[in-house]
Amino acid sequence: MNEMKAPPLAASELMGPNEFEAAIRAVGTERYHDKHVFHKLLHGGKLNKGQVQAWALNRYCYQEAVPRKDAAFMSRVHDRDLRREWISRIHDHDGLGEEPGGIERWLILTDGLGLDRKYVTSRQGALPATRHIVESYVRFVREQPLVVAVASSLSELFAPSIHRERIAGMLENYDFISDHVMAYFKRRLTQAPRDSEFALAYVKANARTREEQEACVDAVRFKCDVLWAQLDVLNHAYVTPGLIPPGAFVPASL
Prior knowledge:
Layout: H1 17-31, H2 37-43, H3 49-74, H4 80-94, H5 102-112, H6 117-122, H7 128-143, H8 146-151, H9 159-173, H10 183-206, H11 210-238
Helix pairs in contact: 1-11, 3-4, 3-5, 3-7, 3-11, 7-11, 9-10
């Protein structure tokens, strides 16, 4: 006797919590940037120092944008408890008191790579496309409904594995990378799971229609696209075909 299969979920029917979470996680399986060719070159020791410098310099634009997008998000939140929870993300990046924060730890990385700190923080040498890509993320969080804006942060669900791979791969493959300059990634091994656990619970509780759930899944896709596109432009400028736009950082060696 054939088993009866459950009817397919109607397009308007709310996904259950487990199904909703599975749909979010499936985005990472499909399109998280650990699958990008530039990522594989970086972690596999296939880039030279100039190319690693270009990556760190451009990635600074993203690191610098994160607390700004979180501040933009908080400016729209009337729920005091949510603001009290979310503000830790700004402290994580900008620092608080004796805690220097993630941006300072990223600058320790660029210092260690021999880049001038004022040049890095000016963002003048970043690829024009990098700056536009990261600002699209800030705008998205500022303009989308709160639950969708929160969902865009859920790429953090997939981050710990890439950080572990980055720490091991770069320390093993580059003699100009030391344990000291990898402090940013080591700290994110604990921060990212904490943040993603809260954000996932919030999204599951507050996406109350199928349309909102689908918008949240799309937000995770958008964020993965932001991360992927940053590597696309790096690869195009500094690997192949190697077309560096006017005004962008030109490494001493390529």
